[in-house]
Amino acid sequence: MIEKAEAVVLKTLNHGDTSKIITLYSREVGRLKLIAKGVRSPKSKAMGLFQPTRHIQVIYYAKSTSDLQLFKSGELVNGFFGLEEDFDRLTLAQVMVELLDRSVEDEESHPRLFQLLVDSLSRLSNRKIASAEAYWFFHTHLLNELGFQPHVGRCSVCRDALDEGGSLGRGSSQLECVKCHQPGQDSIFVSGPVLKTIQTLSDTGWKDVQKTNLNARERRTLWDFLWQFTFHHIESARGMKSLKVLRQLYG
Ligand SMILES: [Zn+2]
Question: What is the pTM for the complete model shown?
Fold first, then answer.
Protein backbone atom coordinates (compact mmCIF):
# COMPACT_ATOMS: atom_id res chain seq x y z
CA MET A 1 0.00 0.00 0.00
CA ILE A 2 1.26 3.47 -0.82
CA GLU A 3 1.36 5.87 2.14
CA LYS A 4 2.28 9.49 2.64
CA ALA A 5 3.80 11.04 5.76
CA GLU A 6 5.14 14.32 7.03
CA ALA A 7 8.20 13.72 9.16
CA VAL A 8 11.47 14.90 10.68
CA VAL A 9 14.65 12.91 9.99
CA LEU A 10 16.04 11.54 13.27
CA LYS A 11 18.97 9.50 12.01
CA THR A 12 20.34 7.70 8.97
CA LEU A 13 22.52 4.67 8.42
CA ASN A 14 24.35 3.66 5.25
CA HIS A 15 23.22 0.31 3.90
CA GLY A 16 25.04 -1.67 1.20
CA ASP A 17 26.83 0.33 -1.49
CA THR A 18 24.22 2.94 -2.36
CA SER A 19 21.29 2.69 0.05
CA LYS A 20 20.36 4.25 3.34
CA ILE A 21 18.11 3.31 6.24
CA ILE A 22 16.34 6.37 7.57
CA THR A 23 14.59 6.73 10.90
CA LEU A 24 11.89 9.39 10.90
CA TYR A 25 9.43 10.81 13.36
CA SER A 26 6.18 11.37 11.54
CA ARG A 27 2.93 13.12 12.31
CA GLU A 28 0.89 10.19 10.95
CA VAL A 29 2.45 7.09 12.45
CA GLY A 30 5.07 8.28 14.92
CA ARG A 31 8.41 6.53 14.47
CA LEU A 32 8.91 5.35 10.90
CA LYS A 33 11.83 3.46 9.39
CA LEU A 34 12.43 3.53 5.65
CA ILE A 35 14.97 2.00 3.33
CA ALA A 36 15.90 4.33 0.48
CA LYS A 37 17.49 2.29 -2.28
CA GLY A 38 20.15 3.82 -4.50
CA VAL A 39 19.92 7.10 -2.67
CA ARG A 40 23.68 7.47 -2.22
CA SER A 41 24.41 7.19 -5.94
CA PRO A 42 25.47 10.49 -7.56
CA LYS A 43 22.34 10.54 -9.71
CA SER A 44 19.92 10.45 -6.80
CA LYS A 45 18.01 13.61 -6.07
CA ALA A 46 16.76 12.48 -2.68
CA MET A 47 20.11 12.50 -0.87
CA GLY A 48 19.78 16.06 0.45
CA LEU A 49 16.50 15.19 2.14
CA PHE A 50 17.99 12.77 4.57
CA GLN A 51 20.00 14.94 6.91
CA PRO A 52 18.95 14.63 10.55
CA THR A 53 16.67 17.55 11.59
CA ARG A 54 15.21 18.01 8.06
CA HIS A 55 11.44 18.37 7.88
CA ILE A 56 10.26 16.38 4.84
CA GLN A 57 7.30 14.76 3.19
CA VAL A 58 7.66 11.17 2.02
CA ILE A 59 5.76 8.69 -0.06
CA TYR A 60 6.53 5.05 0.71
CA TYR A 61 5.32 1.50 0.19
CA ALA A 62 4.00 0.17 3.48
CA LYS A 63 3.83 -3.45 4.50
CA SER A 64 2.13 -4.08 7.80
CA THR A 65 4.26 -7.15 8.49
CA SER A 66 7.53 -5.25 8.33
CA ASP A 67 9.01 -2.51 10.49
CA LEU A 68 11.16 -1.36 7.56
CA GLN A 69 9.23 0.30 4.73
CA LEU A 70 10.35 1.16 1.22
CA PHE A 71 10.94 4.84 0.34
CA LYS A 72 9.44 5.92 -2.98
CA SER A 73 9.89 9.68 -3.18
CA GLY A 74 10.08 12.75 -1.02
CA GLU A 75 10.34 16.49 -0.86
CA LEU A 76 11.68 19.05 1.54
CA VAL A 77 9.23 20.98 3.71
CA ASN A 78 11.78 22.89 5.78
CA GLY A 79 15.56 22.42 5.83
CA PHE A 80 16.01 24.76 8.84
CA PHE A 81 19.05 26.08 7.03
CA GLY A 82 19.56 28.76 9.69
CA LEU A 83 21.02 25.96 11.81
CA GLU A 84 23.88 25.26 9.48
CA GLU A 85 25.61 28.57 10.00
CA ASP A 86 25.64 28.26 13.78
CA PHE A 87 27.41 25.39 15.48
CA ASP A 88 25.68 25.88 18.87
CA ARG A 89 22.22 25.85 17.32
CA LEU A 90 23.03 22.89 15.11
CA THR A 91 24.24 20.96 18.16
CA LEU A 92 21.06 21.77 20.10
CA ALA A 93 18.96 20.64 17.13
CA GLN A 94 20.89 17.36 16.98
CA VAL A 95 20.29 16.86 20.69
CA MET A 96 16.56 17.43 20.09
CA VAL A 97 16.26 14.76 17.41
CA GLU A 98 18.51 12.31 19.21
CA LEU A 99 16.61 12.72 22.49
CA LEU A 100 13.31 12.26 20.69
CA ASP A 101 14.69 9.15 18.99
CA ARG A 102 15.56 7.68 22.40
CA SER A 103 12.18 8.68 23.85
CA VAL A 104 9.85 7.06 21.33
CA GLU A 105 10.79 3.45 20.94
CA ASP A 106 7.36 2.25 19.92
CA GLU A 107 5.59 3.22 16.73
CA GLU A 108 2.70 5.32 17.84
CA SER A 109 1.35 8.53 16.47
CA HIS A 110 1.59 11.50 18.82
CA PRO A 111 0.84 14.57 16.68
CA ARG A 112 1.44 17.06 19.52
CA LEU A 113 4.93 15.72 20.00
CA PHE A 114 5.58 15.95 16.28
CA GLN A 115 4.39 19.56 16.27
CA LEU A 116 6.56 20.37 19.29
CA LEU A 117 9.59 19.06 17.44
CA VAL A 118 8.86 21.00 14.25
CA ASP A 119 8.10 24.24 16.13
CA SER A 120 11.21 23.88 18.27
CA LEU A 121 13.51 23.28 15.29
CA SER A 122 11.98 26.28 13.61
CA ARG A 123 12.64 28.51 16.65
CA LEU A 124 16.15 27.21 16.96
CA SER A 125 16.92 28.08 13.36
CA ASN A 126 15.77 31.66 13.94
CA ARG A 127 18.70 33.67 15.27
CA LYS A 128 16.49 36.27 16.86
CA ILE A 129 15.29 33.66 19.34
CA ALA A 130 17.41 32.72 22.36
CA SER A 131 18.76 29.27 21.52
CA ALA A 132 19.06 27.71 25.01
CA GLU A 133 15.53 28.85 25.90
CA ALA A 134 14.16 27.36 22.67
CA TYR A 135 15.90 24.12 23.58
CA TRP A 136 14.73 24.09 27.22
CA PHE A 137 11.17 24.71 26.12
CA PHE A 138 11.40 21.66 23.85
CA HIS A 139 12.96 19.49 26.54
CA THR A 140 10.49 20.35 29.34
CA HIS A 141 7.50 19.95 27.03
CA LEU A 142 8.84 16.65 25.71
CA LEU A 143 8.96 15.41 29.31
CA ASN A 144 5.36 16.59 29.80
CA GLU A 145 4.19 14.83 26.65
CA LEU A 146 5.84 11.61 27.80
CA GLY A 147 4.18 11.89 31.21
CA PHE A 148 7.38 12.74 33.12
CA GLN A 149 6.66 16.32 34.11
CA PRO A 150 9.08 17.32 36.89
CA HIS A 151 7.47 18.35 40.17
CA VAL A 152 9.49 21.37 41.18
CA GLY A 153 7.05 23.18 43.50
CA ARG A 154 7.22 21.11 46.69
CA CYS A 155 9.56 18.89 48.69
CA SER A 156 8.81 15.25 47.90
CA VAL A 157 9.18 14.31 51.59
CA CYS A 158 7.55 17.05 53.73
CA ARG A 159 5.60 18.85 50.95
CA ASP A 160 6.98 22.27 51.94
CA ALA A 161 7.28 24.79 49.12
CA LEU A 162 10.72 24.84 47.49
CA ASP A 163 11.04 28.62 47.31
CA GLU A 164 14.56 28.38 48.74
CA GLY A 165 15.53 25.67 46.28
CA GLY A 166 15.84 21.92 46.56
CA SER A 167 18.22 19.00 46.03
CA LEU A 168 18.04 16.18 43.55
CA GLY A 169 19.95 13.06 44.54
CA ARG A 170 21.79 10.96 41.97
CA GLY A 171 19.45 8.41 40.45
CA SER A 172 16.39 10.24 41.74
CA SER A 173 13.78 12.38 40.04
CA GLN A 174 12.36 13.78 43.28
CA LEU A 175 13.41 17.06 44.81
CA GLU A 176 13.91 17.44 48.55
CA CYS A 177 14.10 20.61 50.65
CA VAL A 178 17.16 21.61 52.67
CA LYS A 179 15.70 20.14 55.88
CA CYS A 180 14.85 16.73 54.43
CA HIS A 181 17.78 16.18 52.12
CA GLN A 182 20.66 13.98 53.31
CA PRO A 183 23.70 15.43 51.56
CA GLY A 184 25.18 12.91 49.17
CA GLN A 185 28.17 13.04 46.87
CA ASP A 186 26.37 13.46 43.62
CA SER A 187 23.32 15.44 44.52
CA ILE A 188 22.56 18.68 42.73
CA PHE A 189 21.27 21.72 44.59
CA VAL A 190 18.83 23.67 42.42
CA SER A 191 18.11 27.21 43.59
CA GLY A 192 14.62 28.74 43.87
CA PRO A 193 14.94 30.93 40.74
CA VAL A 194 16.04 27.92 38.64
CA LEU A 195 13.12 25.81 39.88
CA LYS A 196 10.77 28.66 39.11
CA THR A 197 12.16 28.92 35.59
CA ILE A 198 11.73 25.18 35.04
CA GLN A 199 8.15 25.48 36.24
CA THR A 200 7.45 28.38 33.87
CA LEU A 201 9.11 26.64 30.91
CA SER A 202 7.13 23.53 31.57
CA ASP A 203 3.73 25.11 32.30
CA THR A 204 3.37 27.92 29.79
CA GLY A 205 3.22 28.51 26.08
CA TRP A 206 6.24 29.70 24.16
CA LYS A 207 5.15 33.31 23.95
CA ASP A 208 5.23 33.55 27.77
CA VAL A 209 8.80 32.32 28.16
CA GLN A 210 11.08 33.28 25.28
CA LYS A 211 13.75 34.58 27.62
CA THR A 212 14.88 33.75 31.15
CA ASN A 213 16.81 35.90 33.62
CA LEU A 214 19.22 33.31 34.92
CA ASN A 215 22.93 33.97 35.44
CA ALA A 216 25.61 31.66 34.05
CA ARG A 217 25.74 29.48 37.16
CA GLU A 218 21.99 29.09 37.31
CA ARG A 219 21.86 28.19 33.64
CA ARG A 220 24.40 25.44 34.23
CA THR A 221 22.33 24.08 37.12
CA LEU A 222 19.27 24.05 34.90
CA TRP A 223 21.14 21.96 32.33
CA ASP A 224 22.35 19.57 35.07
CA PHE A 225 18.87 19.21 36.51
CA LEU A 226 17.30 18.53 33.10
CA TRP A 227 19.75 15.77 32.24
CA GLN A 228 19.84 14.09 35.62
CA PHE A 229 16.06 14.09 35.71
CA THR A 230 15.86 12.82 32.13
CA PHE A 231 18.38 9.99 32.65
CA HIS A 232 16.21 8.75 35.47
CA HIS A 233 13.25 8.31 33.11
CA ILE A 234 14.96 7.68 29.77
CA GLU A 235 17.95 5.54 30.64
CA SER A 236 19.18 5.26 27.04
CA ALA A 237 19.57 9.04 26.78
CA ARG A 238 22.87 8.65 28.66
CA GLY A 239 24.47 7.23 25.53
CA MET A 240 23.52 10.07 23.20
CA LYS A 241 26.40 11.11 20.96
CA SER A 242 25.30 14.72 20.66
CA LEU A 243 25.38 15.06 24.46
CA LYS A 244 29.18 14.98 24.45
CA VAL A 245 29.29 17.96 22.12
CA LEU A 246 26.63 19.75 24.14
CA ARG A 247 28.68 19.30 27.32
CA GLN A 248 31.65 20.94 25.63
CA LEU A 249 29.53 23.92 24.71
CA TYR A 250 27.59 24.35 27.93
CA GLY A 251 29.91 22.50 30.36
ZN1 LIG B 1 11.22 18.62 52.98
Answer: 0.93
